[in-house]
Every structure is written in C-alpha cells, then in structure tokens.
Amino acid sequence: MKEFYQLDVNKVYDYVQQELNFFDENPDIECNEIGDGNLNLVFRVKDRKSGKSVIVKQSLPYVRCVGEDWPLNIDRSKIESKLLEMEYKLTDGSVPEVYKFDEVMYTTIMEDLSDYVIMRTGLLSYNQYPKFVDQITDFIVKTLLLTSDIAMDHKDKKAYVKEFINPQLCEITEDLVYSEPFFDAKRNNIADYMKTFMEENVWNDKSLLMEVTKLKFDFMNNAQALLHGDLHTGSIFINQQNIKVIDPEFAFYGPIAYDTGALIANLVMNYLSTNVRCKDEKLKKKHMRYLLDTIRDVMDVFRDKCMKIWPDIVRDNMACRTPDFAKWYIDDIFVNTAGVTGCEMIRRTVGLAHVQDIDGIEDERDRENIRKLNVLLAKEYIMNRHKMLTGKDFIDCLVGFTSS
Ligand code: SR1
Ligand code: MG
Fold first, then answer.
1. ipTM topping 0.90
2. Ligand 1 centre and the CA of 285: distance in Å?
3. Name one GO biological process term (predicted).
C-alpha cells in the first residue's frame, strides 16, 4: 500500500512516472526544487529532450519557513487542488491545469509555467503588463462574485462554505495579518529601529487597533465569496499574454476585500520600493505611473465589470428587487479593500512574512525610511477607508502621502 514520504530531487521523477507516466522513453531529465514560498516543496521536472515538464507541489506537515516546530495540516493541498480545478473552469484557464492530485502523498502534479514569471519579480525589474488589469479583474469577478450569494443558490453556496472550511490556514492569517503585527509578538520579524516606531505609531494607537479589530472580525465572519486567500503579486505568474494565479491553499469563504486588498497592498509596496530603488529617473517615473494607473484601474474596472454583469447573475430575491444594492455592495468591498491594504502593508513590514519589495531595498537608510512610510501610509488606508470609493481615492492617498 502506498504511504506518504517526502519528495526530493532524486525521487520526484520516478514519482511522476509512477503516477502519470508523463515522460517519453529515455528522457534526459532535470529536476529542481524551485519553491520559495513559506509552506511547501515545489519541484520542476523537465525532459530536456522533448521539452515536456511538470510542476509537483507537495505539502509538508509543518510550516517550511519556520520548521517542524510549527506543525500544519497537510490537508490544505486538497483544498488547493480542488480550488484550482474549479477556478480553471470558472476562469478559462487563468490558473494552472491540475493533472493529478494525490491524496496519500499530498501532492498536486500540474502544468509547468516556465514561460511565465512571478509578477513580483517582473515588477521588481520594472516590467509592465498592459493586459493585467483586464485579466485580474476578470479573475476576481469570476472567482468571487460568481461564488457569492449574489449569484449562487444560497444552499449551494453554504455547501461550498462547508467544503472549503480551512481553519488552520485561516488561523495563520488571523494571527500573522490581523493580530501579531499590532503588538510586540514573538513571531514578528521586526528590525530594532521599528520597535519604538511601532510603539509610538501603532501598538499604542487605540483607535487604529479598534479599526484593525473590526477588519479582523470581518475576515473571520463575512463568508462572502470563495477567496484565493493570499492574492499577492507572488501568487501571480504573468507574461505579456496571460496570467496564471497560483497557490490558493488559503482558500475559504471570506470577504472579497481580503483578495482585492492583498493585491492592492502589494502594488502599493512595489510603488514605494521603486521610488527608492530605481536609479534611472525616466524609468522610475514611467514605472511609478504604470503602478498608479494599475492600482486605480484594478479598482475601477472591477467595479465596472461587477455592475455590468450584475443584472445577468443576480439571483437573490431581495437583491433583484433593490437596484441600489449593487452600488452599496461594491462600495463596501472598496472600503474594506482599503482596510485590508493597510493591514497587509503593516504585516509585510513587521510581521513574520516580509516581501522582497521592501526587504530587498539595498540602502539601509532607504529601507528604514520606506518601512516607516509604509506603516504610516497603511494607517491612512485603514483609518480613512470609508472615503475610498474610487480607484482615484486609492492612488490619491498614496501620492498625497508620498509627496508630502
Ligand atoms: C507561515 S505562512 C506565512 C505567509 O506565507 C503565505 O504566503 C501567507 O501569506 C502567509 O501569511
Ligand atoms: Mg503562497
């Protein structure tokens, strides 16, 4: 009988052949472990002769970036592969195609995306992706609005809520995004100079803590749509033609703003980072303009697409009878998107899991300044979130803050 074992570069080719008989005879195989995420092992297995390749992702029973001291249920890979299969159909292939999910090995064998790059890496090299806004807003509308009570039969939706219950991974977000960055927690990854700064500006700011607590409870209680659950720029593979959204292991029924906010926050952090990293003034200006346009348009095109599709998909008998409800519903997503944007920015600065956009700033003083600016700007997004009702509001906050 098959039993779980941890894969490594020497075992993964035999494993793929056993499961899928994927490669031709006498291949010239190359295997690499390419995972740079916080949780899993990810291998690329490639036959140099035929060019055929696959990705094998295996969940480990502990948090990879911390070690065996932090055990984690490997069942999360089941949720991930189920969601990928569902979203593959919902989005016409904007996620990798799953070839096989193995319930014993907790592996997903899936389409290789070697002609794509991780969006965070692309943006850090100042690349632009003109089709991104249209593609990601399609993805968001299809995966989120279509899995909500707006479009689904309420009992079917509740069955999904049950199927995608994901308590352990939600707990990670509750702790790492909505709690620990807001006090001097042991797991925080915080530079010494940030401690006093956080005490003065965040940890003792009672009104801020109140707003963050409200946002945390929205995350825990608002089973609005089937989220990706970790939709930052490191979860998007991209090229000039397409996007492929990866890694939905944090999926569960939660507030739509959690996905949109994670995305906006990571674009904002890239903007702040570009301002100090890019030494070519012309390129800097161009890239920062591109980021502002992208942030604004993601929000505005998202709203437009929701409003456009709404009459065709709305099923709830009260929402159908109440034309103003659509605007109220989307306004609420905008407001909470701004709130999540702020929480994500703070946690990526002082919480356990950081981002390259900030940690990769080479000059120490620039890095310190951007960390502080990032936290202060994040506060603006949280405290002024009720005013953030258009894409312009999101970028005015950013521009106003960074130019003052
Ligand atoms: C322990 S997991 C840390 C972070 O990595 C994942 O990508 C999520 O963003 C999580 O919060
Ligand atoms: Mg991830």
1. yes
2. 31
3. methionine biosynthetic process
